[in-house]
Write a structure and sequence with these properties.
This protein is an alpha+beta fold and 445 residues long. The chain contains 14 helices and 19 strands. It folds into two domains: 99 residues, Nucleic acid-binding proteins (OB fold (Dihydrolipoamide Acetyltransferase, E2P)), CATH 2.40.50; 312 residues, BirA Bifunctional Protein, domain 2, CATH 3.30.930. Strand 15 and strand 16 form a beta hairpin. The radius of gyration is 26 Å and the shape is elongated. The protein binds 4-amino-1,4-dioxobutan-2-aminium adenosine-5'-monophosphate and magnesium ion.
Length: 445
């Protein structure tokens, strides 16, 4: 048999006889010609079955094939600039065709389907070209995350999923019965990262993260992936420098390696090409002024109402969307009110009502992709905050301990993989950026 190639390598095999193993994505035919669009996981190629070039039974088999039938094709790769596919511009002139299985009638057809139907068929929907492209980008984003951290001196130290206490507020905890003792699925690995920096200096954890989010939004999953770097001897300014290098690398890598997928998704890549350090940095107070100015100018009463915000409250998605539309790059908003952020954040010097926190908001209305801060390094202040937040002190003894043995200023952040992929791929709803999304009303399949 001819050598089996993968569709993504097709340009290196023009003129050769090769075999391709895959699934029928779309078939069109007229008379003596059948056009089979076949996907193999790495791309899509158009195969042309010409009646006079193949045995009669092969032509008949091609005519009968149903969508998603599995097959092995042998033939010659031809360059043809008009040929559709990913990468486009190549087709396979078929000499032989082996059918592995003729598929049953496939429920997902090129016609439009409702999103509930598609979500019920997520196990099949992931084969569709849009979903395939988004998940290929996701894999590259994850690779770029690890590459950048591993090659910049960060040690990957995994943190537990089963945890005895809240890391990010008590309202979104999933409780698990741990041999009779209540335990929670991790909302963050950060607190353990903070222990780990005292052994390794710069660390990251990367894994699934759980939040019992009771609201249905385009931006919230109950299970998502977060990468959390943490750095010793690092203040808030240093942290923003790290974040902008990191995010720029992820975007650059995706542009380099996933051009065809971004093309299929019709992503405007010029917006991504602008993502280079430095990113604009504005304070929460400045952000409020900008929001007030937008409110004063808008004629839209709904927007005016949605953008109303008292000093002290956290931004909702309308605020983030409005702010990011002012910039053509991701923007840092730092110095949020202490009251709207987590218990562990270092206060602003001389302004205890403000925290040394920073969120990174993605442009084009995508909103927060990173949350981070400088952490409290003083044990007495940390104990006070644990009390103020009504957290059980005994669960945090070890965490306060970290401030007693060589405590240093330190900072870290968490980047949400699905939010980042939604932005890079231009996907408006986060559910398409997770292979099997978990949401308030969805746990199947
Ligand atoms: O801002 P968050 O809650 O920050 C933390 O968890 C910190 N402990 C991180 C740290 O400093 N080590 O979450 C960080 C990011 C958000 O910016 C967002 O991208 C993502 O995690 N995220 C979610 N993504 C999807 N669905 C949800 N429900 C999310 N909640 C947070
Ligand atoms: Mg946040």
């Amino acid at each position: 048999m001819a050598d089996v190639i993968r569709i993504e390598e097709v340009s290196a095999h023009v003129g050769e006889t090769v075999a391709i193993k895959g699934w029928l994505y779309l078939k069109t035919g007229k008379g003596k010609l059948q056009f089979l669009r076949v996907r193999d996981g790495t791309g899509i190629i158009q195969a042309v079955v010409f009646k006079k070039d193949v045995p009669a039974e092969v032509f008949e088999a091609a005519r009968r094939l149903s969508q998603e039938s599995s097959l092995v094709m042998t033939g010659t790769i031809r360059a043809d600039p008009r040929a559709p596919g990913i990468p486009g511009g190549y087709e396979l002139g078929v000499d032989d065709l082996q059918i592995v299985q003729v598929a049953d009638e496939y429920p997902i057809t090129p016609k439009e389907h409702g999103v509930e139907f598609l979500q019920d068929h997520r196990h099949l929907w992931i084969r569709s070209s849009r979903q395939w492209a988004i998940l290929r980008v996701r894999a590259t984003v994850i690779m770029a995350i690890r590459d950048w951290l591993d090659s910049n001196g960060y040690v990957n130290v995994d943190t537990p999923i089963l945890t005895p206490a809240a890391g990010e507020g008590t309202t979104t905890l999933f409780e698990v019965d741990y041999f009779g003792q209540p335990t929670y699925l991790a909302q963050t690995g950060q607190l353990y990262n903070e222990a780990d920096i005292y052994s390794f200096g710069k660390v990251y954890c990367f894994g699934p993260t759980f939040r019992a989010e009771k609201s249905k939004t385009r931006r919230h999953l109950t299970e998502f992936w977060m990468v959390e770097p943490e750095v010793a001897f690092c203040d808030l300014d240093d942290l923003m420098g790290i974040e902008e290098e990191f995010v720029s690398h992820i975007v650059r890598r995706t542009l380099e390696e996933r051009g065809p997928e971004l093309g299929l998704l019709e992503r405007d890549t010029s917006a991504l090409e602008r993502v280079e350090p430095p990113f604009p940095r504005i304070s929460y107070d400045e952000a409020l002024e900008k929001l007030a100015a937008i409110r004063a100018e808008t004629q839209d009463p709904v927007l005016k109402e949605a953008l109303a915000l008292e000093w002290g409250s956290d931004f909702g998605s309308p605020h983030e969307t409005a702010l990011t539309k002012l910039y053509d790059k991701p923007v840092f908003v730092y110095g949020y009110p202490t009251a709207c952020k987590a218990f562990y954040m270092e206060p602003w010097p001389g302004r205890p009502e403000v925290s040394k926190s920073v969120d990174l908001l993605a442009p084009e209305g995508f909103g927060e992709i990173i949350g981070g801060s400088e952490r409290i390094s003083d044990p007495a202040l940390l104990e006070q905050r644990i009390r103020e937040h009504d957290l059980p002190p005994e669960a945090f003894t070890w965490y306060v301990d970290l401030r007693k043995f060589g405590s240093v200023p330190h900072s870290g952040f968490g980047l949400g993989v699905e939010r980042t992929v939604a932005w890079i791929t231009g996907t408006r709803h986060i559910r398409e950026t997770s292979p099997y999304p978990r949401m308030l009303n969805r746990i199947y399949p």
